[in-house]
Amino acid sequence: MLRPNRLKQRLRAGERSIGCWLFMGSPTAAEILSHCGYDALLIDHEHSPGGLETAVDQLRAIAPSPVTTLVRLGDNIAAPVKQALDSGADGIVAANVEDADTLERLVAAALYPPLGKRGAHFTVSRAARWGLDGDLYAANADKELLVIAMIESAAGVAAIPELARVANVDMFFIGPLDLSASIGLMGRYTESAFVELLDEAERRTREAGIALGGAALPGHDAAALFDRGYAFVTAASDVGLLRDGGLQMARPVLRT
């Protein structure tokens, strides 16, 4: 279902964008959040229980909204890239990228020849409206695609200059929890060593001229990240919104 990529358009225009993670595998949650003003929704396949068929149901639920749909890969290999894109996702998010070879293979899997090596399936794919828009999809898919590499380790931060030389990568997205864990400080976001590593990741990304993305976290909310030059921030998740809303409603009752 080829359509303009809202997040990619906003990145090109230099506009700040906000996103929300989908961890529950729930089409209903995805549908609700698609109407809440987010620029992108990220379907997680790295940690979450949903599979490809669940993702298709989520994509169908989101489809009436112009929000960009991204799939975070479970593995940084070619097969899930093709499956996610042929199912109708607007882009991919690769977790914990630490070397250019891996990133080059993922980009190649996402782009049609001559830019890449993506297999042609648009004659029958859902992304091409089951082949009804095959020619249109083939001609425009690469232009609308988003490829995002997550930087989630000290090794990934060190590799940013190398990663930035890979063509057709739209964003480096800093994953703060795994980044802190990579230096033995899991979740300890105020520790000076973590702050310094985060600052280095941000600086290297800005110097490379790649759009900077990341997740809001305690002490580093969306407003603070935007002030530091982030173009895209994930500020919420379906699980977090439901959990926090549930706690907010239940706790006053339990105290009475």
Automatic annotation (TrEMBL):
<dbReference type="GO" id="GO:0016832">
    <property type="term" value="F:aldehyde-lyase activity"/>
</dbReference>
<dbReference type="InterPro" id="IPR005000">
    <property type="entry name" value="Aldolase/citrate-lyase_domain"/>
</dbReference>
<keyword id="KW-0456">Lyase</keyword>
<dbReference type="InterPro" id="IPR050251">
    <property type="entry name" value="HpcH-HpaI_aldolase"/>
</dbReference>
<keyword id="KW-0479">Metal-binding</keyword>
<dbReference type="Pfam" id="PF03328">
    <property type="entry name" value="HpcH_HpaI"/>
</dbReference>
<comment type="similarity">
    <text>Belongs to the HpcH/HpaI aldolase family.</text>
</comment>
<dbReference type="GO" id="GO:0046872">
    <property type="term" value="F:metal ion binding"/>
</dbReference>
<feature type="domain" description="HpcH/HpaI aldolase/citrate lyase">
    <location>
        <begin position="18"/>
        <end position="243"/>
    </location>
</feature>
<dbReference type="GO" id="GO:0005737">
    <property type="term" value="C:cytoplasm"/>
</dbReference>
<dbReference type="InterPro" id="IPR040442">
    <property type="entry name" value="Pyrv_kinase-like_dom_sf"/>
</dbReference>
<protein>
    <submittedName>
        <fullName>4-hydroxy-2-oxovalerate aldolase</fullName>
    </submittedName>
</protein>
<dbReference type="InterPro" id="IPR015813">
    <property type="entry name" value="Pyrv/PenolPyrv_kinase-like_dom"/>
</dbReference>
